[in-house]
């Protein structure tokens, strides 16, 4: 994403009341879930949590070390428990790790208690972003990044499509993306209440 500057949001977005359920951002690694999530939470005056950071805190080690020392299955189990605990806290913005929504139990929990938002970013843009921080992505260690992203997208996109809201994003300013998310959530809430 470009545009980290704090520019005012349109009046409709800044006047929006926060939803009564957690807003959960999901999508591929590099989609901007954490950076957009923090900005979205600030605009909506809600707490922000990053599931990956919370997993690291609970485990007392970086995700790469959890993968290396205990394997992906152990990581996913801890991730599931952390997400359940966080969602129980009520309204907030929660950024999920790229694979978290693939877990059926997690999807069921979120369907019951949250509004899920898929940040859908084109592969070309994802590749540019993840190459900036390669060490933070255990699934990309020692592999062809483009090929791995394409494989993951093929596996995950049909599941991500179960999200309540899909936001197609490209390389746009944070504020424009946040406004787009807020407007989509407003529309979703209105549709659900109708």
The gist of it:
With 194 residues, the chain is an alpha/beta fold. The chain is built from nine helices and five strands; from the N terminus they run αβαβαααβαβααβα.
Order of helices and strands: HEHEHHHEHEHHEH
Strand arrangement, largest sheet? 2-3-1-4-5
Note the overall shape: globular
- The second-level CATH architecture is 3-Layer(aba) Sandwich
**What is the percentage of strand-forming residues?**
5-15%
- Summed up, the domain count is 1
Average pLDDT: 86
The Cα radius of gyration reads 16 Å
What is the helical fraction, as a range of percent?
40-55%
Ranges where pLDDT stays below 50 over 5 or more residues in a row are 1-14
Tally the helices: what do you get?
A: 9
CATH fold category name: Rossmann fold
Sheet with most strands: 5 strands, parallel
What does this structure look like?
The protein has nine helices and five strands; from the N terminus they run H-E-H-E-H-H-H-E-H-E-H-H-E-H. It is an alpha/beta fold and 194 residues long. It has one domain (22-189): Rossmann fold. Strands 2-3-1-4-5 form a five-stranded parallel β-sheet, with helices on both faces. Helix 2 (33-44) crosses helix 9 (174-193), helix 3 crosses helix 5 (72-87) and helix 5 runs parallel beside helix 6. The chain is globular, with a radius of gyration of 16 Å. Mean pLDDT is 86; it is low at 1-14.
